[in-house]
Design a protein that fits this description.
It is built from no helices and 20 strands. By secondary structure, it is mainly β. The chain folds into 2 domains: 1-31 and 169-248 and 279-283, no CATH class; 52-162, no CATH class. The strands form 6 sheets. Strands 4-5-6-7 form a 4-stranded antiparallel sheet, with no helix packed on it. A hairpin with a 5-residue loop joins strand 17 (246-249) and strand 18. It starts with a strand and ends with a strand.
């Protein structure tokens, strides 16, 4: 079984290696006719579908239509219910659909009492675009980046906790989730909206194995001198091999990968255009 396929916008490459033996991945240009997409099989309804909240006055959505009151900046399907999805809007309102987008209902977001003004988009330096990830293996577990913080919900977006403590900054946060360990997540912080590159001029991935309660800095094999690059929010991913691979791409055109859940890293390819997005799939 080949390990994974890595997709990059504008340039398309296949990354192929055996899952079991985990040799060094290689990139090859695909045949034009080889593109395909997997269709998820229908599964049972999520046992943790949100108890829908009453919309606040500033987040009314037309019920009975597919309309939303602002552009969608982050979207994730519910992996436990193919009819359901979450949409995080440009004004940081969060909506949920349980009927494939026919109707939408507002959910509580962001967490109350944080003191953050999520509805101002930070002048003159915009905040990082929001992101939202639903965990594949644990129903109801969501991670979100919004404003200058990272959040976790354990109850399908009914309540949120700030999990930024222990990270070197509260900005950036491209996210990836370990495919077999629902509490293991990876982020790459940046300095600030004014200085959009990795902290201290060193490329480091931060891993939490307990859903964001504590963080571990991972640097083995990553460049640690004069690094002025960033990892965009869609440029981290994982594969689904037993020994899960973790991948990240930089705006400097480098792709790094780890074959041991982030403990150490290797350079896969350099001198590419800025990496906007990475996706891995076993083929």
């Amino acid at each position: 079984m080949n390990r994974a396929t890595i997709f990059l916008p504008l340039l398309l490459f296949f990354l192929t290696t055996a899952c079991a033996a985990a040799p060094t991945p290689t990139l090859a240009t695909p045949r034009p006719s080889a593109s395909s997409s997997a269709t998820p099989s229908a599964g049972p309804s999520s046992p943790t579908a949100p108890a829908l909240a009453t919309p606040a006055s500033n987040r009314q959505a037309p019920m009975g239509t597919g309309d939303l009151p602002a552009p969608v900046l982050a979207f994730t399907g519910d992996p436990h219910d193919p009819r359901s999805a979450y949409a995080l809007l440009s004004n940081y309102d969060l909506f949920y659909t349980h009927d494939r987008g026919l109707t939408w209902q507002a959910l509580p977001f962001p967490p109350a009492g944080t003191g953050e003004d999520f509805h101002s988009i930070g002048q003159p330096y915009p905040l990082a675009g929001p992101d939202l990830v639903a965990n594949t293996f644990q129903p109801g577990l969501l991670f979100a980046r919004a404003g200058n913080s990272l959040y976790r919900s354990r109850d399908a977006a009914q309540n949120w906790e700030d999990i930024s403590k222990g990270l070197p900054s509260r900005f950036g946060f491209p996210m990836a989730i370990h495919p077999h360990e629902p509490q293991t997540i990876y982020v790459v912080p940046e300095i600030s909206p004014e200085y959009r590159y990795v902290c201290d001029g060193k490329l480091a991935v931060y891993r939490s194995r307990n859903g964001g309660e504590t963080w571990q800095r991972l640097t083995r094999g990553l460049p640690q001198k004069h690094v002025y690059t960033q990892v965009l929010r869609h440029a981290t991913t994982t594969d689904v091999c037993n020994d899960a691979g973790v991948y990240l791409g930089t705006t400097g055109g480098e792709i790094f990968f780890s074959r041991n859940a982030g403990d150490s890293w290797e350079l896969l390819r350099a001198h590419l255009p800025p990496v906007l997005s990475l996706e891995a799939a076993v083929v």
